[in-house]
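Protein modeling request. Please complete all fields; requests missing the sequence field cannot be processed.
Requester role: graduate student
Desired output: 3D structure, token encoding
Chains: 1
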Amino acid sequence: MKTARASAGPAMDIGIAADDRADIAAGLSHLLADSYTLYLMTHNFHWNVKGPMFNTLHLMFMGQYTEQWNALDVIAERIRALGHPAPGTYKEFVKLASIEEPEGVPAAKDMIRLLVAAQEATARTARGLFPLLEGAHDQPTADLITQRLEVHEKTAWMLRSLLEE
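Delivered output (165 residues):
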């Protein structure tokens, strides 16, 4: 038994039950996959946008993908702090994400529409974690989710505003 315990590492007791930690890590893995897909989509659009709104969108998308990139590490590290491995491959992200990547290079306004939908999808994924977090008394993850929701909702609003006449 000593060998098995030593290879498993020390027991974790942070005040959140092991089953709850596993469920929260699974939910965060879905959020990480949506966030990575959103990051990649936004960076792709930054590279490929064209037309009369080029400069505005090119700069806006850069700010958005940079913010999104930094968030990936925060989400992944929270999964690790809960004692679980973070997904980190395209194959895993495709399985876990609720966002479908577009094919080809959409027109600028279609890029905006797709990003609104992806921001909103990511917000829905994040919001879906709250009941589990409240039951497990996981305030650090709830704080992370609240911060992510604020970013995704605000970004969706700003993008949506570009589509208004």
